[in-house]
Amino acid sequence: MKAFMDENFLLQSETAKQLFKAAEKMPIIDYHCHLSPREIAENIQFRNIGHLMLGGDHYKWRQMRTFGIDEKYICGDGSDWEKFLAYAKMMPGAIGNPLYHWTHLELRRVFGITEILSEKTAAVIWEKANALLATEEYRAKGLISRFNVEVLCTTDDPVDSLEYHGAIAEDTDFKTRVLPTFRPDKAMNAERAGFREYIERLSEVSGVEINNTGDVIEALTLRAEYFHACGARISDHGLDTVPHARFDRAAANRALADGLNGNPVSPDDLDSYRTLIMVALGKVYHRLGWVQQYHLGVLRNNNARMFSKFGPDIGFDSVGDAPFAHDLSRILDAQDRDNSLPKTILYSLNGCANSVIATMAGNFQGGGIPGKIQFGSGWWFCDTKPGMIDQMTALSNLGLLSQFVGMLTDSRSFVSYPRHEYFRRILCNLIGEWVENGEYPADMEYLTAMVKDICYNNAKRYFAL
User: How many other C-beta atoms are found inside a 10 Å radius of the C-beta of residue 166?
Assistant: First the structure.
């Protein structure tokens, strides 16, 4: 029997162990996360481990509810200690869930705590961790620095001032580059409440009077150029559904007008509007040399009662199964027709679509750019040991694993960086398995270089950061 989480955790062969020695030393480029630029700029000090580990982590909230914990101790008004104790009570029952591994990697790599979290050990762990969190080294910037994060890309709205990114850049003692990412979802969701107010704000910050779709595109273009001047090189689109890739400008303008007036927006008109914006922005990204990200396959805010009480991003989203292959193909093709398709990363929350994504990427490779279209890392509900293995297996079967840009945290938590280690161990073990089985030669020089590329070098080259 192996000891729990020893130095060879998840590494089941000598080849895997040797590869991981190279992988673990590589810096981190976290090209997509949801950390708060304000909290980084202000270098906040966390009240305690409950605040740090549970304050914004809907992965953990979701399983606490499944365990039967009252909402008071999740998103309610329970104290930080009560919430941490409730999480500790749940932890032994999380066997097979990645939270069990993530949590203990967080305790070990962040705090050096090797106790197994449970109701019995919660108080001891609470005291040990809180003593460290009271020190200067455990403020927000210190937590990032201890994991050798070279670049960190936040997720930002086009109307954001990016003032906190400027403040972070002025801190010459903080070596991590924190760059904004352009996420224009609110400008595209004309059917949602608050759209008029959002467009008014976009008009204000861009200086463009918005009366039609051309004005929206002009305003977003100006904001993208502003983001570029502030260091942005990546955009992100949360596509709960993919528009039908056909657009009629009159229909698109009708969707905009209905959204601004608070009227119901026809689904066909909305698809025309969203397609028009996406294709136009793709050309902007291509001109700027950016990478665009498409996050696909989500069914959000399923629980209306809890949404009305707490809002979005609190653990009531799930995998979507709406077909998207045809429409995604047409969206990418519309950008490619005049050779203005930017580098693109495609993520699917639905593991059943792995072959769809992996083969779709192959349709639009070219231009002398290694891995121009990427099959993105296992994301959200696929960010598990089997989920990552499935994603990398599909990528290697249908594309080239060697060109993969690797892992990202996609997290709101400052203690999520051990997930990069988790990914690297799984990657090395997968490759090691192929070598040990005689499916690939034991060319350790090449394999070591490839693992380093997947963990760091490919991303550094691909994003041109």
Answer: 13
Residue 26: which of 408, 420, 375 has the closest Cα?
A: 420
Tokens of 415: 């203690």
Instruction: From first to last of the 465 residues of the chain, give the pLDDT tens digit.
Output: 999 999 999 999 999 999 999 999 999 999 999 999 999 999 999 999 999 999 988 999 999 999 999 999 999 999 999 999 999 999 999 999 999 999 999 999 999 999 999 999 999 999 999 999 999 999 999 999 999 999 999 999 999 999 999 999 999 999 999 999 999 999 999 999 999 999 999 999 999 999 999 999 999 999 999 999 999 999 999 998 899 878 899 999 999 999 999 999 999 999 999 999 999 999 999 999 999 999 999 999 999 999 999 999 889 999 999 999 999 999 999 999 999 999 999 999 999 999 999 999 999 999 999 999 999 999 899 999 999 999 999 999 999 999 999 999 998 899 999 999 999 999 999 999 999 999 999 999 999 999 999 999 999 999 998
Which structure tokens are listed for 244? 């039908």
Token output for 156: 């930002």
Calpha distance 299→320 (Å, rounded): 5
DSSP assignment of 146-157: TTTEEEEE--B-
Rounded Cα distance between 189 and 72, Å, is 32
CB neighbour list of residue 404: distance below 8 Å, 6 or more residues apart: 371, 374, 375, 392, 395, 454, 458
Tokens of 411: 């997290």
Q: What is the DSSP string of 55-116?
A: SS-HHHHHHHHHTT--GGGTTSS--HHHHHHHHHHHGGG-TTSHHHHHHHHHHHHHH---SP
Work out the burial of residue 3: count CB atoms within 10 Å of its CB; fewer than 13 is exposed, 13-18 middle, 19 or more buried. exposed
Given a contact cutoff of 8 angstroms between Cβ atoms, the answer to whether 75 and 61 are in contact is yes
Interatomic CA distance for residues 408 and 419, integer angstroms: 8
